[in-house]
Amino acid sequence: MAAVSAFTTIFHTTPSPSFTSRKPKPGFLTRPPISALSDPFVLQIAESLEDSVPTSPNLEKLRSLSSETLLNTPWPSRKDEPFRFTDTSFIKQSDIKPVSYPPIDQSSTSLTNSSVFEQTHLPNLTIIDGYLVDSLSQLSGLPKGVFVGSLLGIESSEITKRVFEVLPVSVQGDLFWSLNGVGSPDLVVVYVPEGCKVEGGLCLRYVSSEGSGKGSRKLPVSNPRVLVVVEKGGEVGIVEEFTGGGDLSYWSNSVLEVVIGEEAKVSHSYIQMQSLSSAHIKWTSVRQEKSSSYELVEVSTGGKLSRHNVHVQQVGSDTVTGLSTFHLSGSDQTQDLHSKIVLDHPRGFSRQLHKCIVAHSLGQAVFDGNIKVNRFAQQTDAGQLTRSLILEPRATVNVKPNLQIIADDVKCSHGAAICDLEEDQLFYLQARGIDLKTARKALIVSFGAEVIDRFPSNDLRKKVEHHVKKLLDPEVHVENSI
């Protein structure tokens, strides 16, 4: 039988005149899939991604596992529970094409003059359209033993061995996770050795530069993938910034995996400001070992369709997890957060605060938060709160907070609220001489400030605050805005 790609649907066991065989890339499955279980649309995207990325033996296992899953994974629809409130037809109805390889000239004036490349005192790494760009990165000042860069650039055999130990042995996510596994051109690695503390943090800047203009159905897709490994007692702050040019249409399909060793700490700041004509799908997968700490602070304002999947698993006792997220839908956007925290060991602690504002009549926000406390997670303390602010009559918010508790010695709570601004608060400000319009603006801005104030850097807090104010009131001129 002729060799075939992992994604080629076969109806016969012998070649026919209508069948054209293609030589598979190393590591891809060569056995024929069952056509009845394959989604032609998914296979078409997967084939194009497979052909677009350079061959990499180091990513062979990841790509093989991802391709195997895609053989029987259909494109999600509103009939699927995880996507019941999230319409992905914007992507499906587009002409999806992988970004160019080799990538376009990232040293062009339009990019280097972009505000995303403004001066920062933090060591920083720039990823454009899924490709690491060394010429636009600055990594000086990192402690000895810390590695930040491409998997291919690792010179230490010990770090390489450790990376392959923690790479996923099975596919953890959904269709988009697997598409990233097939289409990611490289793996960016952040490695912090045992006992090492990275002062100030590290900034990862993702830029989507290739896109189509208004009226075009073309949707270039990029698949950046980053792995962060922090060994026992290590500490690091990771800042992720996602931006894109103008009103370009593109699809950013990103994955971040974080492995936190015993007694290690990771502070994760995530800022999403993609084009309002783009699709942004993000996976964040975190594994915490004993006595470790993970803190996420997120502000998401961009994308016509934006979805963040956060999966945290506590695999040791006395672990601490904090998720603080703020979403703003100021246009005909969908802002979606799907989170899951799994506690398997005693004395786990988690807190989750999700806030969102829908300020457009066609805007939508989705929150699906799951906290699962398994049998041996005794003395767990878990809390979850989601609050949504609707500013237009036809705006939509769908929330689904839930707790799954099997252990019997726990302290768990959750709550949800969806409303417009409270009349009592407006009356309080008006009674002190503040006009209604100004009072509303003040209350709206302060609604998201509870999350924004949790960013660990004062400079970051100011930048995000200015950006949010500009979106809520475009007439306001804010200096040094993002």
Measured distance between first and last alpha carbons: 56 Å
Spans where pLDDT lies below 50 across 5 or more residues: 1-6, 8-24, 26-36, 106-110, 477-482
> What proportion strand?
25-35%
From the alpha-carbon coordinates, what is the Rg to the nearest angstrom?
23 Å
Overall spatial form: globular
Q: Structural class from helices and strands?
A: alpha/beta
Mean pLDDT: 86
SS elements, strand count: 21
Q: Largest beta sheet, briefly?
A: 11 strands, mixed
Give me the number of helical elements: 9
Report helical residue fraction: 10-25%
Topology pattern, helix = H, strand = E: HHHEHEEEHHEEEEEEEEEEEEEEEEEHHH
Task: Give a structural overview.
With 482 residues, the chain is α/β, with parallel strands linked by helices. The chain has helices at residues 40-52, 60-70, 89-92, 109-112, 157-166, 175-183, 423-430, 436-452, 458-472; strands at 95-98, 124-128, 131-132, 147-150, 188-192, 202-208, 218-222, 225-230, 235-244, 251-260, 265-273, 279-288, 293-300, 305-314, 320-329, 334-343, 349-358, 364-373, 380-390, 396-405, 410-419. The chain is built from nine helices and 21 strands. Strands 1, 4, 5, 7, 8, 10, 12, 14, 16, 18 and 20 form an eleven-stranded mixed beta sheet that branches. Strands 3-2-6-9-11-13-15-17-19-21 form a ten-stranded mixed beta sheet, covered by helices on one side. Helix 2 packs across helix 6 (175-183) and helix 7 (423-430) packs across helix 8. The termini are far apart. The model is unreliable at 1-6, 8-24, 26-36, 106-110 and 477-482 (pLDDT under 50).
